[in-house]
Amino acid sequence: MASISSLGIGSGLDLNGLLDQLNEAERGKLEPVERQLESQQVRISAYGDLQGALSAFEGAVGRLAEPSLFQSLSANVTGEALQAAAGPEAAPGQYQLEVEHLASAGSLASQRIDVDLDDALTDAEQTLTLAFANAPEGEQGEIAVTVPAGSTLGDIRDAINAREGAGVSASVVNDGEGYRLALMSNETGEAASITGLTFEGGFFAEGMAVSDPGDEVAGVVAQAGRDAALSVNGIAITSPTNQVEGAIQGVTLDLQQAGRATLSVEQDTLAVREAVGGFVEAYNALKGTIGELTAFDADSGRAGELLGDSAVRTIESRLRNDLSGMVGDPAQGELAVLGDLGISLSLDGTLSLDEGELDLAIASDMGAVQRFFTGGEETLGMAGRLSETAGQLLGSNGALTNAIDGAENRIESLNQRYVRMEQGIAQTIERYRVQFGQLDGMIAQMNQTSDYLTQQFATMDAQLGRD
């Protein structure tokens, strides 16, 4: 039998077209598997949205479960003389403060130098020495700065600024009649005052070292650094910086300007109110996500990705049980249910907050509010209970994680099934191809035989006609 390289050549039939139709029909068997794979991918994406909303809720209740939230203090200042921040060691109280003056840095400007900025002031390497009321931290006594040969006034400035631990910032100032080398202490306060500058080169006049930075010696302009001066409830206090710590235990004062101010250190009720509001918002956001994922539109027939999902029902049921439960003993005057704080569960499953009732509960007994949310040594409060439940649902053996794992396992199984079906389809199409090739060859051979016989009969007819 002749070898056929392309189907249909021998027979004249469109066997390739027929084979394509058979291939398309066979691959149609894959469509249900593809739809199932797509459905599982959509479910995993929906579980991811639900996981994000539940994690955000866990974070919100976790904040309410921290006792430190209810023990935090705020520092409220009346007046513009200072700002304040209360730390964990602060104690409630009222303070009258007066800032007499702020801390300032010392400065020293050299005598006026009659040179151009491009003029070299050193023929060889020289040493410039800085003196302070107290040497900067990490330094001892005077500070030496090496000035290279051929340095201009700007080069001297740069050498000082490049000296690690110099304790000053240098600049070149033109006072209208000539240039000065100006130095400013990097730190504020009297102890950081710069008291002298000497230079081997000799182009500065003698007497640069001043015993009192307020003096003017040989054209030197010096200004002493100054400590901040303030009083707290009449008690005089000095500070080398404008950020004062320790004057009031646990409170940091940031001095802004001279003047009077009143400081109130009190319980930070705003943080508690914001945390409770955040808890309500996070739960409602979670409910909104669940609502979208389980919705059903009767008009279009469109169903949410997780409609009827058992993991969603488990999450809703467990959280609803926690929210409606009792955590305190009302007979003992304790806050027992969310309604005691102005939080109610609506018919649609969301929470609503009456801020007035919450403010009243906080103002009446912050300790009771704390116990309601955080519980005691052996019992969980409302926030602790919800945080534990959310953690379990999100955990490695939780309902949500198990649902995701189940969807991923189904995808793996469907992928394996898809591969097996593709292999079966390929084998079937190949079998058809072989059979069509055989058919094509057979028909081609039959056509050849038919042509031969036709020719023979024609020849016989011709011979008989002649006879």
Walk me through this protein's architecture.
This protein has 467 residues and is α+β, with helices and mostly antiparallel strands. It is 43% helix and 22% strand. The protein folds into three domains: 1-72 and 271-467, f41 fragment of flagellin, N-terminal domain (Up-down Bundle), CATH 1.20.1330; 73-102 and 228-267, no CATH class; 105-223, Immunoglobulin-like (Sandwich), CATH 2.60.40. The chain has a five-stranded antiparallel beta sheet, with no helix packed on it. It has a four-stranded antiparallel beta sheet with strand order 7-8-4-10. A three-stranded antiparallel beta sheet has the order 2-14-13, with no helix packed on it. Strand 13 and strand 14 (251-255) form a beta hairpin. Helix 6 packs antiparallel against helix 9 (382-394). The radius of gyration is 45 Å and the shape is flat. The two termini are 38 Å apart. One of its GO terms (cellular component) is bacterial-type flagellum filament cap.
